[in-house]
Amino acid sequence: MDKFYAHSTDRPDKADWQLLEEHLKNVALLAENFAKVFGAGDWGRLAGLLHDAGKATRAFQRRLEGNPQRVDHSTFGARIAAERFGSLGLLLAYAITGHHGGLRDGGEQETQLHHRLNPSYRKVPEDAQLISSIALPAGMTPPFRLQKGAGGFPLAHLTRMLFSCLVDADFLDTERFCSPEKASLRQAKEQVPLTSLKDLLDSHLSELVTKSDPTPVNKIRAEILDQCRRKATGKPGIFSLTVPTGGGKTLSSLTFALDHAVANNLRRVIYAIPFTSIIEQNARVFQDILGLESVLEHHCNYKENDDPEEAAYNRRRGMAAENWDAPLVVTTNVQLFESLFSHKPSRCRKLHNIAGSVIILDEAQAIPTEFLEPCLAVLKELVEHYSCSIILCTATQPALDSSQVKTALPNIEEVVSNPEKLFEDLHRTEVSFVGKLTDDELTARIDAERQVLCIVSTKKQARGLFEQLQNSGGFFHLSTNMYPEHRRSVLQTIRERLNAGEECRVISTSLVEAGVDLDFPVVYRAMAGLDSIAQAAGRCNREGRLNEKGELGRVYVFEAEQPPRMPWLKRCATRAAEVLRAMPMADPLGIEAMRRYFELHYDVENLDKEQIFTQMNELTRELSFPFRTVAEQFCFIEEETIGVIIPATEEVEKQVSALLFTEFPRSILRKLQAYSVAVRTKDFQALDRAGALEMVGGEFPVLRNMQAYGEFVGLCVDEGEVWNPENLITS
Length: 731
Known about the structure:
The chain is of the alpha/beta class. It folds into 4 domains: about 5-190, no CATH class; about 195-420, P-loop containing nucleotide triphosphate hydrolases (Rossmann fold); about 430-585, 3-Layer(aba) Sandwich (Rossmann fold); about 640-730, no CATH class. The protein is about 45% helix and about 15% strand. The protein has a 7-stranded parallel β-sheet with strand order 5-6-4-7-8-3-9, sandwiched between helices. β18 (about 695) and β19 (about 700-705) form a beta hairpin. α21 (about 565-580) packs across α22. The protein is globular. It starts with a strand and ends in a 16-residue tail after the last strand. The model is unreliable at about 300-310 (pLDDT under 50).
């Protein structure tokens, strides 16, 4: 056979088919350029050259011609890598065998890597021709020196990064051949350099300072910003930005990140946020300052704009989300960390673009405790071997350098010169512990205040308190039982009433505690961990207006009449109580008490519940890494939920109907995320038994009994069986 092809078209004469040699060289060049960022260009090139070597067989060429028989085309190149380069060649073998189906576990079982590399698994066909132009080097060495006793984690992560380079390169070259229109749109998109984004942010901040009132809080925010700029010129590493809530850390951290990236010739900024409830708010702020095209918003609740003029942007944004090819990425902790431990090509495409980045972890204390050690291990790896800087940004800095943490972060450098004094200067609240309050006592206290926020630990209690109070005026409820667009609307009304000085009493779950800019004179908080209490206090006297009158905001911490049943909530509250007993004179929201709280918390918690770091760090001659197993175990959100669409408007109803007539529902589902409520499995089953749901197209659950969705409280599972008679009449 004179010619081998990688991809085919409908033309029987093959005049426009893509030659295999061309595809291999294209992928090799792209993968080499991607991997050069972390010093592994030759590894990337070799992965690209070998990944489709198995297509140089008569069997695969017959498949391109229409033969339906499946052909394994990835094992041959992997086998070459393993035979030529020994144990280190296995790193390439993982990437090559997984470039379509995902990284495999190492091992000798039927579906595992080492079994496939065994010559007895599948013999190379006699007519296989391994392309002669592939010039293999004599040997390969890792792009970094393995430290003695470091274990296998660095090699496992290198494998995943090489896999990322290969799959992104393969996707891009295949797209260029199969979807040239999409490829040209991708190539036409010019990124704004970080220096220009820095200038835009500097200009915005200068204007902000000019317009801001010269209040004590604004003066402190300006000083924090100045310190961020001064510190940003330092070398890459791990930094902490410990700023009290309301100290302007969102824009200060972005300023540090852009200045630091420009000073150190880094490539992008990744802003990771733990809560989807605030990601849109931050992304919108950044887009207003830096331009829509420069900020990639990537999370499950992203809502596309239906404006026809935005169609081109939506397509470009969708492509950028595939591999994070954008100067500023705003994403969630779930998206960031689960991708870093994923085995799937679609989720791993972006990983090579994390190299050479500044990563801001907003609310760093929110990393789930049971996954803390693997998360810290991968952050250390990104700093040590992939030219990243990490910024731990929070008002409640966790003790991530503590001796209780096996993978503790070393040499964390504080950005603010004297955070203790900063907390004193920004002291705006007085915290009182008022003991147990019955629901009646609590509602009486709330009703007596003109403007007050009450945060409780469960959605059930939030709804119950609100329903006791809602006969009075100016009451609002917030919880994740409300679809995102509903919550946004209520939050906007709350802000307007607060700014106008009108009555405003809010009952909420903890969703308001991070990044939601609300400013109440009084806050009640159910007993919880010290970090949660501090976040609640951040919604009290946020702008320091009461200080100007010689007053402080009032924060009351109480024990609920019915404490939450969740064990982890109980443990957090217990650790907080221990700190308060041991340090009665300390500021309960101060740095000293907070560090002690996290040390106690980490001392008793299992920081690697699934033993993920242990599994990935085991170093054997066979380099048998459990990539697929770990990916399945690494899941931030333990309890499975099902998104139920709430048809709240005619437009939502149109989108639901469109699901029946589309081959590609993903874009419609993205829009419907803003009108969906995540429901636990048992609650979903209760709604389904009550006949309150319709499975549109057999797979998309839509709430049909709107009596089960309250105007003020959102989804009420217990109302699923109660129907409005008018809704039962059909015309």
